[in-house]
Amino acid sequence: MKKLLALLLCAVMCMALVPAMAEGNTVRVAYGYDPNTLDYAMTNLDTANFILAHIAETLLMQDATGAYVPGVAESYEKSDDGKVWTFKIKEGLTYQDGETPITAEDLYYAAARLLNPQDPKDNASFSILNSEKYYNGECAFEDVGVKKIDEYTIEYTFENPTYESDFTGTSLFAPLEQSYVEAGGETYGSSSYLPLANGPYKVEEWLDDASVTLVKNPAYHTPEIAKADSIQITLNASGDVIVDMMLAGELDIASVLDPLQLQTLSDAGFVIGESFSSTYQGLNLRAGGKSEESGKFLSNANFRRAINTALNREALAASVMTGYTPTYRLSAPGELAYEANPDYKAWDTTANVELAQQYLAAALEELGAVKEDIPVIELMCYESQGAIDALAAVQDQLRQNLGLETVIAPCTIQVMISNAMTGNYDLWWGGNEVSVPDACVSYLDGFRSNSGSPLRGYADPEFDALFEAVVTSATLDERLANYAKLEQYFCDNAMCIILGWDSHYVVTAPGTTGYYLMDSGRLNVSGMTK
Question: 304-333 burial by CB neighbour count: b if 16+ within 10 A, else e?
Fold first, then answer.
């Protein structure tokens, strides 16, 4: 799925997430990046996802207890097999102008726009029945599993069983008013043509690369949800600057990853709150490589195993990946898939140099190559010092433990996105968002042979069959049992080099309350008070 890119970028972005609250009832938030776009179908940065969580109400929403509750929907029914979902939309809802009504037509249009093969969207998802066939020109949109039953009722039919958590996604399940979107054309979602909000807040101002201001949406159906009068988002701020601002009394809440920063704030009397893992971080790997030469080696499982086994995750966590827990599998603690199979361990957290060299020797023999034939492998990353430092440590370990030569290739967010979407990379420093109920819905789908994206470059029938068994499982218990087999295959074949699970903590000043964590550690500050 193309939505995978947004999730892969998450770990790069999440370390910049720093929400905060000002004097009075204005919540101040700081992010390291401009949101780039607020087009639901194209968002790919945490900044944008934070904004959309406050301005875009979807069919279902997640409340402070973690429960999935009605949003745009008033009620819903699902079939026994979990594939057909029918939503009754609340009557009388409008967008922020207080006049434009929200109906089933707006959700139908959102789906048609997202899946339009003539205008590809980054977040296109093929979970709905026949959606991939439509995208590939094999059927009409009328054959896709999205049906308007009447003005306020819409029905979705999915290829596989679906869960409540899916209906909180803005790209497919937030309404769009067609005439407004089309009037914006290519500028829709930019700072010059903002989305028409239907959530508790709306965007009042967006100054590119400087700030975004959200204010209460006066037309929102449940105004008491928005306890903060406004949310002020400062852009291009992260790291120690955040700690300094908190110590100066300028901020009241932050999501902290670095343990030294966490200790500094704890010593200063700030309250250490909930902890969560939102991403797993490491080296995304393209099996086809950036070139034919690198692809020859990266497509070999033993070569990938050599890289995976040669890396000392504990040393990385102690130096350049502070705030991350060394990984020994895909699923992170807290995920349903982890809790269902807690004893599984796929690899050591320290380097096993002897085994890594055995894997490398096996790869060379299988490929009929010698070590001198291995090209310089490119390590792509966002142009931040933290990412560059992390890759420098990886580079040293690969050189010392395997004799592999690599080159670090920092680039802008825009170039990195372009390279990823076109498969123009070898190894890419980044991460993936922890998701519900498992990684299939937002990550592993990109490793399928028919994923429709050059992002991963795999063609593995055995992986495809295991993936299909998971997503077609009739019950959640069956799904988790099948997922355990898929995770083991993924890890055994080193299809991605996962290095660390992040460990965030929410830090607040005494007396600051009302925030809550949504799935994958997304922070909601609508109800904050001081």
Answer: bbbbbbbbbbbbbbeebbbbbbbbebbbbe
